[in-house]
């Protein structure tokens, strides 16, 4: 790809996502200039999304007909998804993950934090499938997979008997630590927080005290609303307690969780979360990007960082009538509106 580019439009600048008419100059993949430009035109320039929680591996278990609770469907080692994963060939696994990633890229996603099952081989299969497509791929391995990945992903503090040793070894190896926590009750959250993880996933039933601790210790929480509803662990607008998280100053990230049940589409996740939880559009868009702060430089548009953004043309659709561009991006955006993507690795 040619890594030089000049692009004009109304861009969401910085972490505040202030929309301004600008011309952005990219040289050798780095944003070198952002200049106000009253003639920038009507296109929207949006930071690439970072899907803060995926399980790409279970693409091969997509929409498997099943009824059951969380444990029967996805809890290791015997949940349905784990049996389907074990039965899949490596070729199918890689090709499934790659297909999902191609769809993510089309939808404006340039990175994700994936919980990858299957040990070292499982983590390697994901790199093989996705490294060349996603500049922001952050893999959380398990069962030894963390040794070749960026981090250790714990399915729940209650599932792992030698947790302390695993976390210590991963920390000693300079790895990130992430936990599923609070997905069906608050009982595994304190045990996860005790390790001061880099990421908590779900927090659906986290208590106010636990959320305060996340806010105080700046531990981001990746919420996955559609997954919570699909798996029957959410039944109201306070599961997860999105507004309590906002009020307490938690850093909220957005993830789509299992490809088995939920398409890894950040536009769809934002729209659902907006309608169900009434989460404000600017906070939602920020949550859809902020997971990229796990990397050395995030996807927010600012000078001196690798360019990771996409361009939408509202003129091609009814979106040109929007009176609130951020709300329209959240409620009506889709891959169909994207006319250009510019994703650059920071390594
Ligand atoms: Zn998960």
Percent of residues in beta strands? 15-25%
Computed Rg: 19 Å
Domains counted in the coordinates: how many? 2
Question: What is the overall pLDDT average?
Answer: 95
The spatial strand order of the largest sheet comes to 12-11-10-9-8-7-6-5-13
N-to-C span = 16 Å
Summarize the structure.
The chain is of the alpha/beta class and 347 residues long.
Describe the structure.
The chain has 347 residues and is an alpha/beta fold. The protein has 2 domains: 5-48 and 299-343, Urease, subunit C, domain 1; 49-294, Alpha-Beta Barrel (TIM Barrel). The chain is 31% helix and 24% strand. It is built from 12 helices and 15 strands. The protein has helices at residues 70-74, 80-87, 90-106, 119-130, 163-172, 189-193, 208-216, 225-230, 242-248, 266-277, 281-289, 325-332; strands at 5-13, 18-27, 30-36, 44-47, 49-55, 109-116, 136-141, 151-154, 176-181, 199-202, 221-223, 252-254, 257-258, 308-312, 338-343. The protein has a 9-stranded parallel β-sheet. Strands 3-2-1-4-14-15 form a 6-stranded mixed β-sheet, with no helix packed on it. Helix 3 (90-106) crosses helix 4 and helix 10 (266-277) crosses helix 12 (325-332). The chain is globular and about 60 Å long. The two termini are 16 Å apart. The model has no long low-confidence stretch (mean pLDDT 95). Bound molecules: zinc ion. Zinc ion binds at residues 53, 55, 115, 180, 201, 257.
Keywords:
Urease, subunit C, domain 1; single chain; 15 strands; alpha/beta; binds zinc ion; TIM Barrel; 347 residues; 6-stranded mixed β-sheet; globular
